[in-house]
Amino acid sequence: MQKALEEKIELIEFEKKEMATKIKQLERAQLKANRTQIANVGKTADSTPINSSPTVKKGA
């Protein structure tokens, strides 16, 4: 019984470490996504700033 409990504890501790690693990876991915999102603020898909107006030729 003692041996089985010790093995169960070891397994739980291992899974806990794995979950901590996965959480860190997800946090890093989220930070990267946030930075990308911030960098792309004000740009459209073709990288043209949203507020830029096309050149209008007068008298054409």
Low-confidence stretches: none
The radius of gyration computed from the alpha-carbon positions, rounded to a whole number of angstroms, is 26 Å
The helix/strand series, from N terminus to C terminus, equals: H
Number of strands: 0
What would you call the shape? rod-shaped
Question: Into which percent range does the helicity of residues fall?
Answer: 55-70%
Strand content: under 5%
Residue-averaged pLDDT, rounded? 84
**Helix-strand category:** mainly alpha
Cα-to-Cα separation, first versus last residue? 91 Å
Largest sheet: none
Number of helices: 1
Structure description:
The protein has one helix at residues 2-39. By secondary structure, the chain is mostly helical. The model has no long low-confidence stretch (mean pLDDT 84).
Properties at a glance:
63% helix; mainly alpha; 60 residues; coiled coil; 1 helix; rod-shaped
Annotate the secondary structure layout.
Elements: H1 2-39
Coiled coil: 9-36
Region (Disordered): 40-60
Keywords: Coiled coil
Brief sketch in words of this structure:
The protein has one helix at 2-39. The protein has 60 residues and is mostly helical.
